[in-house]
């Protein structure tokens, strides 16, 4: 090897770019794709309930189990949580960190109330002998409503993590993007629950 070749050096950036690559709106696009995949999951669960939701196996049906008053209270908890999250997003646009944290805390409390009432309902059904193994109707019911409840529970954990990040780092651009993603997720769960309330509870009692 010649001395000239041995002494030839290349700058460190000749073969790769060390800069950060984050396409504009890439996170939001990816999150919309995730929500569409979640839509497919709930669509399958709704379809399953539609097929087997009338198979009671001589067991209790919707009229025997559902308490529309309790479900209405639970629905109001989730709808109110969506409103308070909207207030948090408005305060984020104004740059008011403490107000954002306050509204997020209220949102989390409404979410916890929703999950708590749902767990109470599940426990009551199981105590009455109407567990998921009792009939195809109850299997489909627990699968659909339970999957939604798990999503809300995950959303609450995500909410708490974001509150800690906002408290430590402020309303930075990444935190604003994360809050926007959680907003989409939270409102998506609201829309799904309206479908559950109408298709499962209301139509089940009126059937």
TrEMBL record:
It holds the Pfam family COX3. One of its GO terms (cellular component) is plasma membrane. The chain crosses the membrane at residues 31-56, 68-88, 100-120, 140-164, 184-204. SUPFAM superfamilies: Cytochrome c oxidase subunit III-like. Residues 1-205 form the Heme-copper oxidase subunit III family profile domain. The keyword Lipoprotein does not apply. InterPro entries: Cyt_c/ubiquinol_Oxase_su3, Cyt_c_oxidase-like_su3, Cyt_c_oxidase_su3-like_sf, Cyt_c_oxidase_su3_a-hlx, Cyt_c_ubiqinol_oxidase_su3, Ubiquinol_oxase_su3_dom. It is a multi-pass membrane protein. It comes from the Bacteria. Gene3D superfamilies: Cytochrome c oxidase, subunit III, four-helix bundle. Keywords: Cell membrane, Electron transport, Membrane, Oxidoreductase, Transmembrane, Transmembrane helix, Transport. One of its GO terms (biological process) is aerobic electron transport chain. One of its GO terms (molecular function) is cytochrome bo3 ubiquinol oxidase activity. PANTHER family: CYTOCHROME BO(3) UBIQUINOL OXIDASE SUBUNIT 3, CYTOCHROME C OXIDASE SUBUNIT III. Cytochrome bo(3) ubiquinol terminal oxidase is the component of the aerobic respiratory chain of E.coli that predominates when cells are grown at high aeration. Has proton pump activity across the membrane in addition to electron transfer, pumping 2 protons/electron. Heterooctamer of two A chains, two B chains, two C chains and two D chains. Belongs to the cytochrome c oxidase subunit 3 family. This is Cytochrome bo(3) ubiquinol oxidase subunit 3. The gene is cyoC.
């Amino acid at each position: 090897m010649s001395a000239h070749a041995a002494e030839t050096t290349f700058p460190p950036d000749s073969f790769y770019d060390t800069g950060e690559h984050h396409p504009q709106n890439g996170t939001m696009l990816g999150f919309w794709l995730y929500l569409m995949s979640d839509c497919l999951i709930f669509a399958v669960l709704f379809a399953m309930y539609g097929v087997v939701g009338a198979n009671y196996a001589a067991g209790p049906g919707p009229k025997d189990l559902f308490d529309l008053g309790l479900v209405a209270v639970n629905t109001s908890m989730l709808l109110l949580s969506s409103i308070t999250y909207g207030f948090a997003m408005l305060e984020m646009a104004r740059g008011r960190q403490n107000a954002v944290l306050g509204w997020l805390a209220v949102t989390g409390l409404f979410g916890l109330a929703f999950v708590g009432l749902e767990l109470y309902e599940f426990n009551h059904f199981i105590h009455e002998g109407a567990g998921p193994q009792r009939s195809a109707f109850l299997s489909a019911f627990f699968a659909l409503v339970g999957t939604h409840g798990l999503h809300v529970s995950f959303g609450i954990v995500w909410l708490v993590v974001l509150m800690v990040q906002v408290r430590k780092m402020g309303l930075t651009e990444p935190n604003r993007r994360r809050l926007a993603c959680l907003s989409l997720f939270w409102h998506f769960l609201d829309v799904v629950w309206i479908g559950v309330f109408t298709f499962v509870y209301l139509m089940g009692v009126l059937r």
